[in-house]
Structures are given as C-alpha cells and as structure tokens.
Amino acid sequence: MSIVNITFPDGAIKSFQSGISAMEIAKQLSNSLAKKIISCKVNGEVWDTTRPIITDSSIQLLTWNEADAQKTFWHSSAHLLAEALEILYPGVKFGIGPAIEKGFYYDVDLGDNVISSNDFANIEKKMKELAARNVTFDRKEVSKADAIAYFTEKKDEYKLELLEGLKDGEITFYTQGNFTDLCRGPHIPDTGAIKSIKLLKIAGAYWKGDEKRKQLTRIYGITFPNQQELDDYLVFLEEAQNEITAS
User: What are the domain boundaries of the chain?
Assistant: First the structure.
C-alpha cells in the first residue's frame, strides 16, 4: 500500500496509507473532532470528508463555524428538501439547488401542483423524518451516457439540459436514501447532522434566468445543527424586519 503525506494547517506533516479520507484522519486525531467536521479542504478545494485522498496533499478539517462548512451543510439540506418534495409531490422535476449566503434554495417544476407557505410545515416534517434516518451522502462518478439514461428515464428535462455542457470524467451523482441528484458536491457525511429546519419563503424563478423559459418555483430554507441556532436566527430575522418596517 502506497503512502501519502498530509500537510496540516500548522505545517505538521503526517504519513497515511493512500486512499485515506479526511474523516478517517480526523478519527485518528480525535474522536470528538471527527464528530464535528462537516467537510474539508484538500489542496484548497472543498471536499466530502469521505472522499479518498490518493496523493500528497494539504488538508484543513472544517467545522460548523467556518463558512465553507456552512455552505456544504446548506447544500446538503437542499438535497434533503428535494428528496422530501419528490415523496410528497411525485413527478416533481428539479432545476438547481445551491447553498446561498444564509441557507439554500431549490428551483422546482411542480407540474400541476402548487405550493404555498401553508405547506411548509408538512414539508419540514418530512425533511426531519428523512434527516433522522442518518443516511450517508454517497458520491459516484458517472459516465455521460449513464447520466443521460438516468434522467431520461426520470423524465427530468432540466437535469438533461444541465448535462449538455458536461463531459465524461466531470459528472458525479450524489445519493442519500432514495434520492439521487446530479451534483458536483461536496456534502456533509450524513443527514443526521441536520437537526433543525425552517422553510422561509417561495418565489418564482425563470429557468436559467431567462424570462422566455418556464417559471419554476423557488423554495428557500435554512437549517442548523441545533435548534438554538435556528431560534436565534429567526429572532434576528424578526428584528431585522421590524427595523425595516419602522424606518
């Protein structure tokens, strides 16, 4: 088994077997640290903590208070939202679902269905049920032909359009539970980290920002690893809104 040299932020260099992941490195350093890491940086690029490292690399283990970790957390939460929607609204089709500065959104085509804020509680309930399964986010490299076949069978023209600009060797799928998405990642280790969930608002969004294309439903949300942070954030939003109203 070959060896890789891993350089840590403090300049220390340690040797490990090739193929080790950031999560495995964290566990060797400290079990408590391993429970806290959300994602990692390998040679400056944000990765899943489960992705194998096969060359000499620099590494930074990312925990919740770091912006890149939060972005990973919220991106994974967007996938959780999509999985819940697919269960509650069969036939839903998906555009894009990125993390944003605070939280995430997913653009979806609901077909004949309509969602309002009155539906948020039911969707949040399903997301919490799915998160509690504590399933992993699994990354898989996929050929373009296989990716096209998958989304053709699923009849999701938005993902097929996104595939048009991609080539073999740069396409990855991520799966959690029964939901699979076209995605570059990275993602958190498992859904169990998502403890508190709040959907915030709905807006219309033209596909690819083109007003000549179909208008999709954009659902915004935010999640946290504990309830207190969500409660504090909602208080912050309320106070900010009160200041706007008073001005």
Answer: 3-63, 69-246
* CA separation for the pair 188, 48 (Å, rounded): 6
- Identify the CATH class of 3-63: alpha beta
**CA–CA separation, 111 and 102 (whole Å):** 28
Which regions of the chain does DSSP assign to beta strands (E)?
A: 3-7, 13-17, 39-42, 45-47, 57-62, 93-94, 104-109, 138-141, 172-176, 179-182, 196-206, 215-224
Q: Which residues contact 111 (CB under 8 A, 6 or more apart)?
A: 89, 91, 92, 93
Distance CA 72, CA 99 (A): 7
pLDDT at residue 165 is higher than 90: no
3-63 and 69-246 agree in CATH topology: no
CA-wise closest residue to 105 among 242, 201, 206: 201
Cα–Cα distance for residue pair 182/163, rounded to 1 Å = 9
d(CA 84, CA 114): 15
Q: What average pLDDT does the segment 186-204 reach?
A: 97
| CA dihedral over 107, 113, 117, 122, signed as positive or negative | negative
Per-residue pLDDT band for 125 (boundaries 50, 70, 90) equals: very high
Domain 69-246 classification at class level = alpha beta
**1 pLDDT above the threshold of 70:** no
